[in-house]
């Protein structure tokens, strides 16, 4: 009986017919795992390497957000500085636990929740200040919300803390301005904490202020904000 003839010869090594499908499989696998993968596969590989983002809901009952309004004018020494606290706000922060980005912050403060907290004022005086905040300063019936929505976050990570500058759009008294808020952000378990301070010129937001002693005591245009915000992991 005549012996079968090999299918073809590679470098002197006889490769029989059954080896041909194996060559095709190896070649296909090489294409799949090489750098010439399809865009869909490349996108999948790329996305699998992105940092995991964790979301946190802001908790006003455990937080502090204070507006410092200092006195000025010819008789400034007769006036009293204000410490206005925001009692009602909501929002969400998100960040990666091992990278600076992606990160974001959205926050809404109910303007009518702002109230005087300084101990230098009596209870009746605090009630008067709150009424003026609502009707003259913030016009809360017309502009009920103060909002901030981040657009970019920059900074550094050092010793487990994020020292960041949060750029974003703030809407106050119906006016939107881009502001930058410096903050130190730390995470412990399921709790996020962001603390810092920043300043705004109230006139840029068309925010008026009351005065005393026939205008000799006024509130400065520059308002200073301090905050210590707590967020709980969602």
Structure description:
With 234 residues, the protein is of the alpha+beta class. The chain folds into 2 domains: 8-47, no CATH class; 53-233, Beta Barrel (Lipocalin), CATH 2.40.128. Helices cover 17% and strands 48% of the residues. The chain has 3 helices and 15 strands. Strands 3-7-8-10-11-12-13-15 form an 8-stranded antiparallel β-barrel. The protein has a two-stranded antiparallel ribbon with strand order 1-2. The protein has a two-stranded antiparallel sheet with strand order 5-14. A hairpin with a 2-residue loop joins strand 10 (145-158) and strand 11. It is elongated and about 55 Å long.
CATH topology (level 3) name of the largest domain: Lipocalin
CATH architecture of the largest domain: Beta Barrel
CATH class of the largest domain: Mainly Beta
- CATH superfamily grouping of the largest domain: Lipid/polyisoprenoid-binding, YceI-like
Tally the beta strands: 15
What overall geometry do the principal axes of the alpha carbons give? Answer: elongated
- Give the DSSP E fraction (strand runs of 2 or more residues): over 45%
> End-to-end span in angstroms?
78 Å
The residue-averaged pLDDT reads 79
Query: Uncertain regions: pLDDT < 50 for 5+ in a row?
Result: 1-38, 40-46, 73-78, 212-217
H/E element order? EEHHEEEEEEEHEEEEEE
- Number of domains in the coordinates? 2
